[in-house]
Write a structure and sequence with these properties.
mainly alpha; 149 residues; single chain; 4 helices
Length: 149
């Protein structure tokens, strides 16, 4: 494998490692949000969601860098970017490492999607509880004090 191709693959691996670390942070946040939701600490859930936005923005920047590096690498190899992964020889250590990282990212994204769905369901349930509390408060406000009419 040419040195410039190997260097490009190593850079992609570095970017995927950074993305993987950020995805792990998002996953940890999912379990924290569910915990705080169960303990009815909605302010903490909200603050973690705000933190998630910053992490997602950072992942978006990394994805942009990955796309640029893949475009550069595909130019060096002389193939369209969509064919790059298929054409890299996975018997070469740098390409094998890249394939492994992509698989790890895919698995993390699948886990994150499952956790997000779980959180969404828990939040919908919590919003139903809040709605019932609001209705209860509204009924209490409708009560009259003794002697009022």
């Amino acid at each position: 494998m040419r040195d410039d191709v190997a260097a490009g693959i190593r850079e992609l691996c570095r970017l995927y490692d950074r993305k993987k670390a950020l995805l792990h942070r998002l996953l940890l946040g999912e379990s924290d949000k569910i915990h705080y939701l169960k303990s009815e600490n909605l302010e903490r859930v909200s603050s973690i969601l705000i933190e998630d936005d910053a992490i997602i923005n950072e992942i978006d920047c990394i994805d942009f860098d990955i796309a640029q590096n893949e475009e550069s690498l595909s130019g060096i190899i002389g193939v369209p970017r969509r064919d790059l992964a298929r054409l890299l020889d996975e018997n070469e250590p740098p390409a094998r490492e890249l394939a492994m990282r992509r698989d790890e990212i895919r698995a993390l994204l699948e886990r994150l999607l499952l956790e997000r769905n779980r959180l969404r369901e828990a939040m919908q349930s919590a919003s139903g509880e809040i709605r019932r509390h609001i209705e209860g408060i509204a009924r209490i406000r409708g009560l009259k004090l003794p002697g009022e009419e």
